[in-house]
Amino acid sequence: xxxxxxxxxxxxxxxxxxxxxxxxxxxxxxxxxxxxxxxxxxxxxxxxxxxxxxxxxxxxxxxxxxxxxxxxxxxxxxxxxxxxxxxxxxxxxxxxxxxxxxxxxxxxxxxxxxxxxxxxxxxxxxxxxxxxxxxxxxxxxxxxxxxxxxxxxxxxxxxxxxxxxxxxxxxxxxxxxxxxxxxxxxxxxxxxxxxxxxxxxxxxxxxxxxxxxxxxxxxxxxxx
Length: 224
Hints:
Blueprint: E1 2-8, E2 12-13, E3 23-24, E4 29-30, E5 35-37, E6 68-72, H1 73-83, E7 96-99, E8 111-114, E9 118-125, H2 130-136, H3 141-148, E10 153-159, E11 161-163, E12 169-173, H4 181-189, H5 207-216
Parallel strand pairs: 6-7
Antiparallel strand pairs: 1-4, 1-7, 2-3, 5-11, 6-10, 8-9, 8-12, 9-10
């Protein structure tokens, strides 16, 4: 398992985004050298965890629990076949394009060491939005991406570090529950009946998913 590329993007004006200022950082390209990864801070004020990367819509993206977004090269290859066109690493706005990692099958709370120092923890799947659809430029993209149920994973920072293309990816902790990124994504989008099952992942869940699961199960909400 390895990191194929580390991808970053700078703000660009785009007619398809409703982000403040009409700019988006979704157009991410592979970095030439090492990239430092650190905790960006709380959602709403913190953006990307990667140095040199921009998150322009802080209402919905970025922050500590979505500091890094990973997507498997294998899933990009599957979409290439369906769409009939090449998709470069970073094409879906992912920060990390991986090889040999079952990203959407990762368990919530699973921890990855990338390179010598960086440790990340899986929190949730990526929910497709208008900006993503506009960037990809395919009809009914939000519906198609949702139906595929292979959303890639958001991760929070556990230990900061510097990473680069070619670094090994090692799973250093895998929790004993069965709540995967794919299950969390389905529960959040099309299978609300699965929400109570997410509670097995506990505080490792993205706080928004945890609150939704608690509400559906009729349990008290957590603080924050």
